[in-house]
Amino acid sequence: MPVATSLSSKLGLVEQEGFALRQNRQAGYQFKWHTHDCAMLLWPQFGGLSTSWLDQTGEQLSEAHTVKLVRNAAILLPPNTAHRTTSVTGRQHHAELYLAPELLRNCRHSGAVLLDGAAVAMLDALVAPSLSRKSTTFLVSAIITQLASARPLAPAAGGPSLAQKMVRCFAKALQLEVLLPSVNAVASELGVSIRQLQRACKQEMLESPVTVRRRLLASQARRLMTEEGLSLADASERLGFSTSGHLTRLLHDVGS
User: Taking CA atoms, which of 27, 127, 176, 250 is between 20 and 30 Å from 20?
Assistant: First the structure.
């Protein structure tokens, strides 16, 4: 089916200086299909975003490109490119740099691009609140120069990420009503080190594997008590706690 897009005009913002910077920290961020009348660079500061874009406005939705953006990745789109972005983590912070089209004439790639260390450092500096206007202008020029040699980021191959595989291991145990495996056991089952699992989980979910495990366990305990009517003691026994006091502390620590 055709993609219905709306125009989010930014040309007035870039008319004077050639660029405009915007930031967003909205939890559960979601922006449906839309276009801009200028070029755009979008990148996450932390958290993860799922972004889709079309080569031309009006193409079929099935032909959209989709990538997951985390730190060190961005999308660079020419004017009038239909795109949409949603957060895939509970919290996120991303920035959008709107650019006059002529500023990107030397950039070889558009779409998803990898950011090297220099580009990441400059983009971090760009969003600093104390940066002067003059410094901002020089920094934007340097960022564009750096982007000219950026490498394209291949679309995700599909399949769950390492963090998602970890969550699935926990969810499977809860579904089978067996003891929730430890983080060490999950890392071993997935064939990765604890540090690899910690890095992947922190990058995608902004939390440690231990915290994710505790949240899932607390959520299951609440479900057992509210939906199945189990008492605190019975839920504690079902989930493998030695005493109901341990579950009480978990529920208090995790919160709602």
Answer: 27
